[in-house]
From TrEMBL:
Keywords: Metal-binding. It comes from Acidipropionibacterium acidipropionici (strain ATCC 4875 / DSM 20272 / JCM 6432 / NBRC 12425 / NCIMB 8070 / 4) (Propionibacterium acidipropionici). GO terms for molecular function: metal ion binding. Its cofactor is a divalent metal cation. This is Transposase IS4 family protein. Pfam families: DDE_Tnp_4.
Amino acid sequence: MRYQTTTGLDPDDMTELVARIHEVLACRAMSLKGYRPGLYRQIGLTLILLRQDMVQMCAADLYRVSQPTVSRIWRRILPLVDEVLALDGISLAEAAAQGEPILIDGTFIPTGNRPASGQGSASYSGKHHLQRLNIQVAGTLDGQLIATSQPVTGSRHDSAAIQMCGWTQILQDAKVSWIADTAYIATGAITPIKKTPGRDKLEWEKQFNHAVSSLRSAIEHIIGHLKNWKILSKGYRGRLAELPTIIRIVTRLELCRIGW
């Protein structure tokens, strides 16, 4: 699927998004007529900030407005994007109820060094030596994003993170098969077989691991596409309290991009 590099959405999806927001504003008897820039460019600016993680001052120069104007546009448009895309996609519970196998993997959102936030020790990952939050990502076997979880502290292992976000219970209740890497061995997932100390892997174990890895490649591509929204990969600079909302909006935009 072709899409615009700058905003993440192709022209048709962009037009649909603008139309939805315009309809919401009209229903509320609100109008951005006379605002500079216009509604289409305000939405485009907001998407660029999400897709490219651009500094607001640079975006202000690009759109020939002031940085405070960019900040006001961000605060005005972001909740509207979240609202109009609320019905895009399905939840993990709805996907699990369909009975098809689900791919699960974790990824982290770097949050920068925040010693003054009081959350430094909780979000610090000893493995990656940085402060971060952990999210779980679910996808289909054919490489389509399903959902992302609420973020949990980055100091927790994937096997603990999936329980903390509530996904383990959802998958168990649905009695659906789900595939993950060896970080999830203790959770009931289908995972590769670890090497037993003192002996080489048997041939059937190698074949099984190859099959699981082949299936899991799709979730790696899904995460790669999701983190093309650079605000999730370059290092989130905003308020930590707002990060769950940003993750939800980016997930909905990615679902919009792939045509859910």
